[in-house]
User: What shape does this take?
Amino acid sequence: MRNFGIVFGYSFRERVRSNSFKWMTLLLVALIAAVVLIPKFLGDPALNEGTVAVVNTSQLEIGDEALRTAVSPLYEWELAQPGDSEALTARLQSEDLAAIVRIEDGTAAAAPRITLSVNRQEDIDFAQNLAAYVERLNTNARIGALGLTGDQAAAITAQPDFAWNELNGGGKSMTETYLPVYALIVLLFFMIYLFAGNVATSVSVEKGSRIQEILITKVSPGQLLAGKVAGVGLAGMLQFAIIFGFGALIVNFAGSGEGLSVGGLSIDLSILGGPTLFVSAALFVLGYFFYSTLFAAAGSMVSRSEELSQASMPVAMLLMAGFMVAMVSLGSPDGTLAVISSYIPFLTPMVLLARVGAGEPALMEIVLPLVILAVSTLVVGWISAKIYRGGVLLYGQKPSVVTMLKMLGSTGKKASRSQPGTSAPGAKDAA
Amino acid sequence: MTLSIKHLGKRYEDKVVVDDISLTVEAGEAFGLLGGNGAGKTTTIRSVLGLLEYERGEVLWNDRPFLTNRPSVGYLPEERGLYPKETVSEQLVYLARLEGMKKQAAHKALKNWLERLGIGEHEHKRVEQLSKGNQQKVQIISALIHDPELVILDEPFSGLDPVNSDMLASVVKEQIAAGKALVFCSHQMMQVEQFCENIAIMKKGRMQIGGKLAEIKRSYGRSNLVLRSESDLTPVLNASGFTDIRRDAQEWMLKVSGEAQAHELMRRIGEAGIPLLKFEIKEPTLHEIFIEKVGEAV
Assistant: This one.
């Protein structure tokens, strides 16, 4: 146990002091700062799609501010004179303008005429809003001309009373939960992949530099593996805390308010609620241990760290499969695929998260997969320690399924520790 | 403190790599484990340390199973292993602590060792920044820093220049004098002769010869004759039927069947009226015994 603590501390410090840790943390912190702060300083340039010139020759009163609020806030609205027509067309052709809108009076009974000039139709997306806005102005103007009383006018322009009738009231709304759960699954995937991948790298470096042979004369492979997995894992969590702590700080500081908005997409994790975040944390911890021991076993099979990506490919594929199934499960979190695959340990971390985040699983449907995952993690840890122990001394040999099975079949260090009795037949013969 | 290996046997697939090896290493002595490449030395050591499982025999420390009664071990593997990107002090303290040392004691021991081997200024450098010879010294410190009871050194002199070789030789002698049990694997026979009282020569997994070095030599008889003269001895030696003669400046070295043959030759040289400056009958060198037993040059 003492050696576990020493390996744990060393692995943690080694990871935190590594250049990749420092640079990755700095880079991500800088990225978050850039995403949050640059739009602030540049006045949200991402929200400006271009300028639209409006030539209004109708009787309707149209102002640029009204256009911004009623039609689209994404454009600059510029009121122009009919005489500027040629200059405007030239500006449109040189992409200086996104569009030219001409609003003219129609005949007495008809609605106003709107002409929308663009370079490509797909350039603009406010046509419907514009039509509705002009129609509303026109309606108001015509009602005004009729000289109706206020009540009469209100009766004509009254909007239907629209109410949602949600049958699954209080349940999770797909539109509300999809994005946050999606974000959480992506986050879980990358965290497990990065942190567990670090364990594989660390193991392969020890193997490649051959210090492993000295280490396992001092520490049992099980303690070495557990200390490393825990140390690198804690370093990963620290990195995560720094990045997101800084992210939260800067979002607060910059006054972005209720949620982090990236490229106009708002990700508000608060919608997920406590239980989902609690299950996510449990899934991260268990998923990390499950995969990092597998990655460590893969790392112990290579002779040089250059071969690592090839050896860890099967493990990465398992993780990727979980991600894929989780993505599919998001659309139908209580469907057969999602339910069954949430019980398969290597799929559990991400699929169960999709189920808990977007679906309505019963308590047992959450607890049971977690228990299965926990037990499998112990089994995988035991198997990985065996492969690790055998693999670390295997140099220059391609890891084959046969060699791995042999390692699993080996009696392990315990048996050899008590070898005077167990290896007796040979010894007695010889003696 | 005694390390005993009894009838150790290890095979890979169908190939026997260590076959019935028995040896004993006492405290305060160095045991020379010799053999050509692929003789099974490293496999024997790895089996002793529990890095490999073996099928036959047993390894004991003070007559109790080695791995359940494990002494503190200082191991210098043939394939050197250090963390290239970590500093000298960082990794040596780590390795020392894994052997049960307290952090402060480890730092203190480290300082002493770095000074002793003349690399004190490299304490906070990364290992990859050091020369090969200095890396080798760091590796040696990693094996000795925790004051182990059993020291296993696999080719400790490789990569060291003559000055550093002498420095390491004095360290090895200190370890022996301090009562450590020391297993010494080397191809450098001079070093083995310098330190080891007992040796074993392995070939293809089997022990070719083993025991006290002095006795082994004695059993070979005094078979080397060295002559020194200012005159040319070759005609007399040829006339006496000696063909396997090595000449080195003013010395002639030849094989004799025993002391009687050597004295007979001296008589003939005297009859020829050639003055001799040196006449010495010597035991075979370990190098010669090794070549004879292993059958290949080292």
The beta strands of chain A are 50-56, 75-80, 99-104, 113-118, 260-262, 265-267. The mean pLDDT of chain A is 80. Chain A has two domains: 2-37+173-414, 50-156. The first strand of chain A starts at residue 50 and ends at 56.
